[in-house]
Amino acid sequence: MATPDLNLLVTLDVLLAEGSVAGAARRLRLSPSAMSRALARLREAMGDPLLVRAGRGLVPTPRALELRERVRQLVEDAEAVLRPAEILNLKQLVRTFTLRTSEGFAECFGPDLITRVGEEAPGVRLRFLQKPDKDSAPLREGAVDLETGVVEKTTGPELRVQALFRDRFVGAVRKEHPLSKDEITPARYAAGRHILVSRQGLEGGPLDDAMRLLGLEREIVTIVGGFSTALSLARASDLIATVPERHTSSLREDMHSFPLPFATPEMTISLLWHPRLDADPAHRWLRGRIREVCAE
For residues 196 and 32, what is the distance between their CA atoms, to the nearest angstrom? Predict the structure, then answer.
């Protein structure tokens, strides 16, 4: 069996990214005819047309779509192997990292992380994006460098995951709220008027499931999209906010907080990134700083 021409991987990667023979030719500095011959060789080697005519343009076949991410990763890995080892100079590093997190994570851990990063690498800027869903596409596509959250079945299986800390839900009310005095029983908690936090606008969650096992149901007065908003409403009213303890520690300093009077599952908050950034020295440094800040 003939040894395959691995140079064709680079050609395939560019063709699938450009979706055009002419565009790929310009990017690789080849003539259109040379690129057409390369495409013909790829089609013969792979037994698939890869790009087919649709009107005036070309569209990828299902096989090409299936291979696009895999080929890109192979090329990036090969480039990393052939690249000289980089010695990271934090004082000269100029880079913007995009972190996709909940607002609670950014508000609780962001200040310390920004301070530490600024002291070590003054040219580094952190961009925090809100996390409206569990979609792994931003990490896959490179729009996001890092993400924090709870790993679920929908999380992309190829992503790297590292646990940061465990968290649990607590209740939070204004200082003079009736629940700030005396023992809080499941019945007292359920009898209050509640704020539900749901990014998708759902009308219930795991806490409500746990309460139903006790034969209780809480009155949900309003639904908001974030923990900060929930705490602001609870601070200015008699409503009860139920929020993650560590995520919101700095946001509850002027409020009365209490453990929930019934068992609820803890959450493991993890750091997620795409494997193509696994060995990147600057990315590894930032991951270490995030772990340190969360550990404190």
Answer: 59
Please state whether the predicted TM-score (pTM) of the whole model is above 0.90: no
Cross-strand pairs, 279: none
Beta carbons within 10 angstroms of residue 24's beta carbon: 24
210-268 pLDDT per residue, tens: 899 999 999 999 999 888 899 999 999 999 999 999 888 888 989 999 999 998 888 89
Instruction: Single out the residue of 99, 6, 153 nearest to residue 286, CA to CA.
Output: 99
Cβ neighbours of residue 47 closer than 8 Å, sequence gap 6 or more: none
CA angle, 81 then 94 then 286, to 5°: 65
Residues forming beta bridges with residue 195, ordered by sequence position: 222, 241
C-alpha distances out from residue 220 to 208, 229, 242, 258, Å: 10, 15, 11, 19
- Which CATH code is given to the segment(s) 169-265? 3.40.190.10
Q: Give CATH superfamily name and number for 95-167+268-295.
A: Periplasmic binding protein-like II (3.40.190.10)
pLDDT digits (tens, 9 = 90+) for 169-226: 999 999 999 999 989 999 999 999 999 988 776 777 788 888 999 999 999 999 998 8
